Amino acid sequence: MPKTIEAKILFDADKLDSIGAVGVARDFLFAGNAGSGNLYTGNEKRLAKSDKNYDFTKEDSAILEYEIKLKYVKDKVITSTGKKIAKERHEFMKAFFERFWLEVKGEL
Question: What is the pTM of this model?
Fold first, then answer.
């Protein structure tokens, strides 16, 4: 855990860069480069619940990365300003992925 204010700010900046709109874009870029070829599998929530130490496989997707890691990043931010920004970015991601599933199901 960072001790100095500078280290805490740098730590938070790293976390904040991985969430929000930029985080969603990076998530899909990462998944595309991982080579699974999956936009989604439909198994993400089950896989995320089954094992927090999931080893990525052919079922990798940007949605799985969100379910396993990105939805928890906000809880790791340590400064008060960082927490405020993280909350806003988390809410954006949450709404994005909720909308994603509605569209996949044909509900929107």
Answer: 0.84
